[in-house]
Amino acid sequence: MVLRNVLAAMFLTAVITFPSSESSSVAEDAYPSSFTAAMTSCDLDEGGRLFPYPQRITDTTLTCLHGDRTTALESSSGFRRVLKNGSLANNSEMKIPTHTGTHVDAPGHVYDHYFDAGFDVDTLDLHVLNVSRAYQEKMSPKLILLMLVISYVSSSTQDGDELIPPRVDVYESGKIYDITHRVSSRTLSGIYVEGIGEYLTLYLSMRNGSDYNFSIIKLPAHSGTHVDAPGHFYENYFEEGFDVDSLDLEVLNGPALLVDVPRDKNITAEVMKSLNIPKGVKRVLFRTLNTDRQLMTQKRFDTSYVGFMEDGAQWLKDNTDIKLVGIDYLSVAAYDDLVSAHRVFLKSREIILVEGLKLDDVETGLYNVHCLPLRLLGAEGSPIRCILIK
Ligand SMILES: [Zn+2]
Ligand SMILES: [Zn+2]
Questions:
Q1: Regarding beta strands 226-228 and 352-355, do their DSSP bridges make them parallel or antiparallel, or are they unpaired?
Q2: How far apart are CA 384 and CA 219, in angstroms?
Q3: Longest dimension (CA), the chain
Q4: In angstroms, what is the span from residue 320 Cα to ligand 1's centroid?
Q5: Can you list the positions of beta strands (E) in 54-189?
Q6: How many whole angstroms from 283 Cα to the centroid of ligand 2?
Q7: Residue 48 domain-assigned?
Q8: Which residues, at least 6 apart from 67, have a Cβ–Cβ distance to it below 8 Å?
């Protein structure tokens, strides 16, 4: 099946809102903390110019209850099996209908010619879904999504016969960067030597008489750009439910530094020290040789990628305030220290690891990062959508 035709309408999506101080919100899903009422600048204090964010984040996404969590993935490599069975890490696989829980519809959901032309969820406009202007205008997420559908239908109609789905990485002339890799059959997961294969099954098809297109997603939880939860490398955390739904959105969203690291070695304590990342910086995305080598888009999983050595992870933990660690390959830890470096990071459950970021063509510097994992109950990893806003 042609991939663009397979890419159906939907994917679970996380939605965060930034209500004003008067707004009521669902208490248990709100993240108070560092975003104070008076806050008009970021926690790096850039003079209030860059990050005029409101005081709290409210998660309006439904949690996804797990049914068939498949943890016993067969593999020749030890770390790919489950901890309980003697493996060094837990690795789940997700299988969910695309329109499960909180989700978004793409035009191809109910228009077969859009479906055939490839108007899938990857073509949705992040400017519409995220831009701060939407907040300033105090529009509800519902209204924004409605406008999204309307704008697509009308703009596509005006295009006449030429239906070209937009595939965009940069929005608003460089204000929004999508730093997420597209998911396709070639996407690497670290579970398989090669890509994940056909991850979408068209369960209901308009071509076969259905009123709409409807796909089912099946992919390893650590595919492409994704997040690790503490249960990935700690069986007790896994059992106690420290899954991706328990990750702190305050850590995953906020001011972040994108830095280049030396290209000739793994990230050791010495390298960490040389980066001179000041105290107070909570989120750092590390761009490495992996980006230069375009490892995320290679056909096979490459164990020669670079990442944190155990001493580098320990140094970061002991000497910085970094709570969000982003990296440009499938594992934040170098292959030789795969388990030990992960365990250093995940032990306190304060540091969140985002892996497989797409960091090419973005300048180093200060941004606002927005990373939203799916609310998959019981999952120790999840695909994640990450964007940078300048
Ligand atoms: Zn992972
Ligand atoms: Zn990892």
A1: antiparallel
A2: 13
A3: 62
A4: 22
A5: 57-59, 93-97, 103-104, 170-171, 176-178
A6: 16
A7: no
A8: none
C-alpha distance from residue 164 to each of 5, 40, 105 (Å):
13, 40, 18
Examine residue 55 and state whether it is found in any structural domain, yes or no: no
Which ligand neighbours the alpha carbon of 351 most closely?
2
Residues 98 and 240 in one domain: no
> Do residue 215 and residue 267 come from a single domain?
no
Q: Minimum-distance ligand to the CA of 381?
A: 1
Q: What is the pTM of this model?
A: 0.79
Band (238; pLDDT cuts 50, 70, 90)? very high
Please give the C-alpha separations between residue 92 and each of 68, 192, 225, 332, in angstroms, as whole numbers.
10, 13, 15, 18
What's residue 134's pLDDT?
A: 41
Cα of 163 vs centre of ligand 2, distance in Å, is 39
Give a yes or no: residue 45 inside a domain. Answer: no
> Is the pLDDT score of 65 beyond 70?
no
What is the Cα–Cα distance from 1 to 182, expressed in whole angstroms?
Answer: 18
How many structural domains comprise the chain?
2
